[in-house]
Design brief:
By secondary structure, the protein is an alpha/beta fold. It is built from 14 helices and 20 strands. The chain has helices at 20-32, 70-80, 87-108, 140-153, 221-228, 262-265, 291-305, 322-328, 330-338, 393-412, 423-434, 445-458, 465-483, 496-520; strands at 7-10, 13-16, 39-43, 60-61, 122-123, 133-134, 158-161, 163-170, 177-184, 189-194, 197-200, 233-234, 239-246, 269-271, 313-316, 347-357, 360-361, 374-376, 543-550, 553-560. Helix 1 (20-32) runs parallel beside helix 10 (393-412), helix 5 (221-228) crosses helix 14 and helix 12 (445-458) packs antiparallel against helix 13 (465-483). It is globular. It starts with 6 loop residues before the first strand and ends in a 25-residue tail after the last strand.
């Protein structure tokens, strides 16, 4: 297979990914781009049927009054991120969420739960000082994605479904992006899509861990591509573990799926195998502490038990009344019942589960990157959350910055033209993709399981220098074994083993960066907890990690956080504001 075998396709605006960021970007680009602009969306799966936004249960954070303000939302985001967020990005997230929720309701057609007076119902999520999470029961993501999908499918946007992006192809001088190399999964053919502007909104998906919430096709492809393209990635050590992933056994992929934050917000209790409620031993807020704190509390209890037959802990809701739980959390009650558990009246075993990636490509507040023509939004972008994402800020981030990306690309595309690709990079990315097709076929799944186990054990909820160094050795071993593993090339159409191989290569590349960034941060902030460096360090001296791929491998440096709006120890809230507006803490 040669470069000359690659099909060519041109467009003006190319959007990679059809989660909240990608779909919103498509709609906004149509509004701001000049008439006649060709907009193309490409997705690894099917529009509206894949991605992380669809899986959102909890809700959407937005300050809509009742004492809550954008300033309060912002301060919660900064405090939750342990003073590592890019403050300008965090402010824009909180400010524009108010605009975007109205757009979701009035233009996109989302219908969220309401109070008896017709106002939007908002519930309490951990780590927040106001009831600000708008939701549709516990199936919020499905509501948002279904309505966005309907709008986009009716919009006339060009659709490349089951097209996997495998490489960002720059111009010869590396100053700008020329296009994206893709595999048409239905045929196995390669296609170079040139575009004047490209949005990378492929989502995160830390599925390199034994327990994880995203579907198995979410494999950090976007960040792996950005790394190879030489783009800087920030906060790559910051992997968020949701405290309460369903533990249903190795026989089902339901294991790791989230039992959402609203359970603990409503008064759910965590108990260990001895029947003891334990979270107040770790934090004064108990089960309502932030996700990182609760995850570490659960992990510590698991280590105390040291019994493989008692791996997790239990969430208990029955004391709130089974009928109340069934009504308020219908989706999760049914999901647990499908796996043989009674969430409403019994106890369900849970475990911390890799959920969200705070790290990502360095971008500005308009989603532009260091490479002309490339924009990044959603979970692929770093900065807005710092070291810890508040529950409910994820889907807000995707939709807010997806819209901003669409607006920005729509304006920028008028002054840009199609560019010629670097033939050497194109050839290298093609060779990388067909590499396993030239080797003897062997199973890929055992290697992925090896990576998941070593990342959980050595680069997981609680970390040490020794553990992460051991993890790096393990990652290198898995990578080496993968390079000795081939794939049957007799039929490339929907050759899922080939795509599993490519998935694992992306996961290995990003896992190495996570471990190296973790080693570079010798303190504990948010999702990154070093048992050998448990102190958070001086907040006023906060810095963030920046990882780059060089000729000598991955290099991690540190850059100071710019306190552009508020400094540690200060607040932008009025002095007479109460600490919290949540009634029950």
């Amino acid at each position: 297979m040669k470069v000359t075998d690659i099909e060519r396709h041109d467009t003006d605006i190319l959007i990679l990914g059809t989660g909240g960021a990608g779909l919103f970007a498509a709609l906004h680009a149509q509004q701001t781009a000049p008439a006649g602009t060709k907009i193309t969306i490409a997705v690894k799966g099917l529009i509206g049927k894949c991605g992380c936004t669809r899986m959102v249960q909890g809700g959407y954070n937005v300050a809509l009054g009742g004492g809550d303000t954008v300033e309060r939302h912002f301060m919660d985001t900064i405090n939750g991120g342990k003073w590592l967020p890019n403050q300008d990005m965090a402010w824009r997230l909180c400010e524009q969420a108010v605009v975007r929720i109205r757009e979701l309701e009035n233009e996109v057609g989302c219908f969220f739960d309401r109070n008896s007076d017709g106002s939007l119902h908002q519930k309490a999520f951990a780590g927040q000082t106001a009831d600000r999470t708008v939701h549709k029961g516990d199936l919020t993501g499905i509501e948002i994605i279904n309505r966005l999908m309907e709008k986009v499918l009716a919009s006339g946007v060009e659709k490349l479904q089951e097209h996997r992006a495998i490489g960002l192809i720059p111009t010869a001088d590396k100053s700008a992006l020329a296009g994206v190399l893709m595999i048409d999964m239905g045929s196995g053919r390669f296609r170079l899509v040139r575009a004047k502007t490209v949005l990378m909104g492929t989502g995160g998906g830390p599925t390199m861990y034994k327990y994880h919430t995203p579907s198995g096709d979410k494999t950090m492809d976007g960040l792996a591509m950005a790394l190879r393209a030489g783009l800087p990635l920030r906060d790559m050590e910051m992997v968020q573990f949701h405290p309460t992933g369903l533990l249903a056994g190795d026989h089902t992929r339901m294991t790791g799926t989230v039992l959402e934050e609203g359970l603990r917000g409503a008064g759910g209790q965590l108990v260990n195998h001895a029947g003891q409620r334990f979270m107040f031993d770790y934090d004064a807020k108990g089960e309502r502490a932030t996700r990182d704190v609760v995850s570490r509390g659960i992990y510590a209890e698991m280590r105390k038990a040291n019994d493989p037959k008692q791996e997790g802990v239990f969430i208990s809701m029955g004391h709130l009344g089974p009928d109340f739980v069934r009504q308020k959390f219908k989706g999760m009650v049914n999901r647990c019942a499908d796996s043989g558990f009674d969430l409403a009246a019994g106890q369900v075993e849970v475990v911390p589960t890799a959920h969200y990636f705070m790290g990502g490509v360095v971008v500005d507040v308009d989603t532009r990157t260091a490479m002309e023509g490339l924009y990044v939004a959603g979970e692929d972008a770093g900065g807005a959350h710092g070291s810890n994402r508040l529950g409910g800020n994820g889907v807000a981030n995707s939709t807010v910055y997806g819209g901003i990306a669409g607006d920005t690309m729509g304006r920028d595309v008028a002054k840009m033209s199609l560019r010629d690709p670097d033939k050497n990079v194109l050839a290298a990315e093609l060779e990388r993709a067909i590499y396993p097709l030239r080797r003897k076929a062997a199973p890929v799944l055992p290697l992925r399981q090896r990576l998941q186990n070593l990342m959980w054990d050595d680069v997981g909820v609680m970390r040490t220098k020794t553990g992460m160094q051991r993890g790096l050795t393990g990652i290198a071993d898995v990578s080496g074994a993968l390079m000795d593993t081939g794939v049957d090339d007799s039929n490339l159409a929907f050759n899922l083993t080939w795509h599993d191989w490519l998935n694992l290569r992306s996961l290995c590349d990003v896992s190495e960066v996570i471990a190296k960034a973790g080693l570079a941060r010798e303190n504990s902030r948010g999702a990154h907890f070093r048992e050998d460096f448990p102190d958070a360090g001086a907040l006023e001296d906060s810095d963030f990690t920046v990882a780059r791929q060089t000729d000598d491998g991955v290099v991690v440096t540190r850059e100071p956080v710019a306190f552009t709006i508020v400094r540690p120890g200060e607040s932008i809230l009025p002095h007479d504001e109460p600490e919290t507006l949540v009634a029950a803490q």
